[in-house]
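Q: What residues go here?
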């Protein structure tokens, strides 16, 4: 791995961690006084899982386009994202699995928080990729 790869690895690790912690804190405020441990853990778990799923779009080559690239054109990536999402929903709503994982239904507000926070590393990663691409191509 190159120095750039290691730097990106650290950067995305920090971004995903910040999103998970942010979701936990905001979730705690949303459910102020009424949030139990299972809901807090569920929001954190789902934010981490979805942030990692969305991260696949940040691993594109910086010279490729934002919407059309080697990642978005791979049908297996879309299949894996779909299957993983179904499994995550099952982890919350299927009685046996949710009991084993100690997850709890989080409601619409909780899901909005999960998706909002899990998409932050993706959006920031795409901005970073686009910035590097433009800076690289406009140089000497």
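A:
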């Amino acid at each position: 791995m190159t120095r750039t790869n290691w730097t990106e690895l650290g950067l995305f690790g920090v971004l995903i961690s910040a999103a998970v912690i942010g979701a936990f804190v905001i979730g705690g405020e949303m459910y102020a006084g009424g949030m139990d441990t299972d809901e807090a853990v569920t929001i954190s778990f789902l934010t981490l899982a979805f942030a990692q799923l969305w991260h696949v779009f940040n691993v594109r080559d910086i010279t490729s386009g934002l919407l059309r690239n080697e990642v978005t054109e791979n049908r297996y990536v879309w299949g894996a994202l779909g299957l993983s999402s179904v499994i995550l929903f099952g982890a919350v709503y299927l009685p046996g699995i949710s009991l084993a994982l100690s997850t709890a239904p989080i409601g619409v507000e909780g899901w909005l928080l999960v998706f909002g926070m899990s998409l932050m590393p993706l959006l920031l990663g795409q901005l970073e990729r686009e910035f590097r691409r433009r800076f690289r191509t406009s140089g000497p």
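A: Context that may help when evaluating the design: The chain is about 75% helix and 0% strand. The chain has a mean pLDDT of 88.
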